[in-house]
Design a protein that fits this description.
The protein is α/β, with parallel strands linked by helices and 624 residues long. It folds into 3 domains: 142 residues, Chitobiase, domain 2 (2-Layer Sandwich), CATH 3.30.379.10; 335 residues, Glycosidases (TIM Barrel, Alpha-Beta Barrel); 113 residues. It is 41% helix and 15% strand. It contains 21 helices and 17 strands. The strands form 3 sheets. Strands 10-9-8-17-16-15-14-13 form an 8-stranded parallel sheet. The chain has a 7-stranded mixed sheet with strand order 1-7-5-6-4-2-3, covered by helices on one side. A two-stranded antiparallel sheet has the order 11-12. Helix 7 packs parallel to helix 9, helix 8 crosses helix 9 and helix 13 crosses helix 15.
Length: 624
């Protein structure tokens, strides 16, 4: 392959996501020639065929070269002439630099070489090569990369129960994006959106996932080295079940109750003392779990805030609410253990009763979650580490209850989790993407958080200060100019114009979602004017974006919808503070805006998601 002259050498550092642990530009560039071979050097080349095909696809798409795939025995005499060898991929677990999921990538005058410490390492090496080819086309800089992850498990949890249930194509596309970011775990947070065969009344209007669809998704994920972990809440967050007459008798508080969160008008948590509760959970597990090949299972069990306020009141007063919670959690553990799986569970309730942590089995995985930038990952991580219980850190995208995101909070939260998770020995890093209050944020609002979380969970040292807007723009939005990443970054920071900080939300999201009588956000005319001006500026920039994704037009519509909804929320903040004589005129305009927004919401929703849940989401858009 011919070497480019020094005058033509690419001098800029590659823009990669995540940035690798070690990269050395050795000077010069390689012009990729046509009609080369991708050689799989392995005793079993078929095991790396899909990975080789991913390299083949990237080379064809971005470098306009067609390289066919050929197998070769690792220790035999070369069967492929050196002049025909473009890329060699292989596994070498005995290499001095080998780390789990690690790889080396070499681009020299002789060609391309990727050596992984295992099959996933080879795949990640190909993902890095794909990003290089996307950036440089057929003229690749000569370099040496050595890379491996900080956290063994790095994943995304997507809420599919409040209220969006994505289409299969949306998930397939998302999985491809996550694989390109070297993420290796996906969870779909489920309350009622799996088609349980004995319980159709729970999901009949929800457009749920069928068993066949989960099997298809599981196979798709496995090919891309992603562990599709089943996720079914099994204690709290059972409202979608317990509001039906068939299941209401199993509730802790069948007719609702007062909680520390305020009044619950509907049942929320299973009654742990009712034998029917664990029987229902067991039936759910038997129906759900055969569709997953994962060895892990997230059983949820978070936020049981009504426990002890209903049928378990006397038992909780006698034993302690924490003890009653733990006893039921251990029953769930036995169900999971009997099915040969490792149980994950949200760790918030145990963290409220840390004295009980020593009684947890040592083969569970606690999920330490928190979504503000100052969440105490350090304190909680130290406590889980001291208990001996393996744990993940679980920050979030800050997209829910925000409409357009909360960029600075999200990046701070994601970095905090990575720093303290690494410091205290967390075995995983799970980026959560919730859909509270009707899931009004479009999916691309979360891409910035996906990208930064993937980066700092792969290698904190290399990615702490990454230009995430630039990297996300190129490698997720496929906009080499950086403009789309910058737009996403700026849309997510409109909330900072307001001095008032709203917990786990933006002011304009609350302005959109809260009844007028409950809407009291301290602001002033300057903030309102500045927010509306910034929203309008961002909206004007959307049509100028130059993305090369197939869904580029849709992403533009999604950002325009988010900005319109943000503007509506600001309008309702103003309405709440207006004098009675001014409210009539403002209500008329907002009513017209809401009619248009409802149509836009439906169109944007159905472009990526199933119809179930849409009507519930629309009901959360407030006027009066």
């Amino acid at each position: 392959m011919p070497i480019k002259t020094k005058r033509d050498i690419v001098r800029s550092s590659p823009n990669l996501l995540p940035e690798p642990r070690q990269i050395q530009l050795t000077g010069g560039a390689l012009l990729l020639a046509p009609d080369q071979l991708i050689v799989i050097k392995s005793p079993h080349p078929a095991a790396l065929l899909f990975t080789a095909q991913e390299a083949q696809r990237a080379l064809s798409l971005f470098a306009d070269v067609i390289w066919h795939i050929h197998g070769a025995a690792p220790h035999a005499a070369a069967s492929v002439p050196e002049s025909k060898t473009g890329l060699v991929i292989s596994v070498n677990s005995d290499a001095a630099t080998a780390k789990p999921q690690g790889y080396t990538l070499s681009i020299t005058a002789q060609g391309l070489t990727i050596v992984g410490s295992d099959e996933s390492g080879v795949f990640y090496g190909v993902m890095t090569l794909s990003q290089l080819v996307r950036q440089y086309g057929p003229n690749l800089p000569l370099l040496e990369i050595t890379d491996y992850p900080d956290f063994p498990a790095r994943g995304i949890m997507l809420d599919i129960s409040r209220d969006k249930v994505p289409t299969m194509q949306t998930l397939f596309d998302l999985v491809d994006t996550l694989a390109g970011l070297k993420l290796n775990e996906l969870q779909l947070y489920t309350e009622h959106t799996f088609a349980y065969q004995k319980h159709p009344i729970v999901w009949e209007h929800a457009s749920p996932f069928t068993g066949e669809e989960i099997l298809q998704l599981d196979v798709y994920c496995r090919a891309r080295h992603i562990n599709l972990v089943p996720n079914q809440n099994s204690f709290g967050h059972m409202r979608r079940w317990l509001t039906h007459d068939e299941y209401r008798p199993l509730a802790e508080a069948p007719n609702g109750c007062d909680t520390r969160w305020g009044r619950f008008d509907e049942p929320f948590t299973l009654c742990p003392g009712d034998p029917g509760s664990i029987k229902l959970v067991s039936e759910m597990f038997d129906d759900l779990l055969p569709h997953f090949s994962s060895g892990m299972f997230n059983v949820g069990c978070d936020e049981t805030v009504d426990l002890g306020a209903g049928r378990s009141k006397e038992e909780c007063e006698a034993k302690g609410t924490g003890r009653v919670y733990l006893d039921f959690l251990l029953k769930i553990y036995q169900l999971v253990k009997a099915r040969g799986l490792t149980m994950q569970f949200w760790g918030d309730i145990i963290m409220e009763h840390p004295e009980l942590a020593s009684e947890l089995p040592r083969d569970v995985i606690a999920l330490e979650w928190g979504y503000e930038s100052d969440h105490p990952f350090n304190d909680h991580g130290a406590k889980f580490a001291a208990s001996g219980i393996p744990f993940y850190v679980c920050p979030g995208t800050s997209s829910w209850n925000s409409i357009g995101g909360r960029t600075d909070n999200a990046l701070g939260n994601l970095l905090n989790a990575a720093e303290n998770g690494l410091a205290h020995g967390a075995i995983g890093y799970l980026i959560t993407d919730w859909g509270d209050s009707g899931h009004h944020q479009p999916l691309p609002v979360s891409y910035l958080g996906y990208g930064y979380g993937a980066a700092v969970s792969w290698c904190l040292q290399s990615n702490r200060d990454i230009d995430i807007a630039r990297a996300t723009s190129l490698h997720i939005f496929e906009d080499a100019s950086g403009a789309t990443g910058k737009l996403a970054y700026d849309v997510g920071n409109v909330y900072r114009i307001f001095e008032t900080r709203t917990f786990n939300a933006t002011p304009y999201a609350l302005g959109t979602l809260r009844p007028l009588a409950q809407l009291s956000i301290k602001t002033n005319k300057t903030e309102i004017k500045s927010a509306l001006k910034e929203i309008d500026r961002l909206a004007r920039s959307v049509p100028k974006l130059d993305m090369h994704r197939e869904d580029a037009d849709l992403i533009q519509h999604e950002f325009l919808f988010a900005l319109s909804l943000m503007r509506y929320g600001v309008g309702r903040i103003v309405l709440a503070e207006a004098k009675d004589k001014d409210q009539k005129t403002m209500l008329a305009q907002l009513r017209a805006d809401l009619r248009l927004l409802t149509k836009q919401h439906k169109k944007v929703w159905l472009a990526r998601n199933r119809p179930g849940g849409l009507s519930d989401s629309i009901k959360n858009l407030q006027l009066n």
